[in-house]
Amino acid sequence: MGQPDDVRFKVVINEEEQYSVWWSDRANPPGWQDEGTEGTRQECLDHIDRVWKDMRPRSVRTARETTQGVNA
C-alpha cells in the first residue's frame, strides 16, 4: 500500500555516507543528518538512486583504498 502524496519525506545521510528516507516532520534518528532533499517518498528514493552509486560504507571504501593504494 502506497503513501499518500501529502506525506512528506526527506533524505538523510549518516557518517558512513549511507542514505535513507525519513519522515520530514520527525527528528532524525541518532547518527543521521539531513541531506537536503525533501519530497514524496518516491521522489526521495529516486534521488537516492541517482546519487548513491557505491553502497559500501565510507569506512570500507577508505580501508580498501588505503590497503590497495587505488581509488576504488
From TrEMBL:
The transmembrane residues are none
At the top level of its lineage, which domain of life is listed? Bacteria
Question: Which ranges carry the MbtH-like domain?
Answer: 3-50
Q: Which PANTHER family match?
A: ENTEROBACTIN BIOSYNTHESIS PROTEIN YBDZ
Q: What is this protein called?
A: MbtH-like domain-containing protein
What's the source species for this entry? Micromonospora qiuiae
Q: Highest lineage ranks of the organism?
A: Bacteria, Bacillati, Actinomycetota, Actinomycetes, Micromonosporales
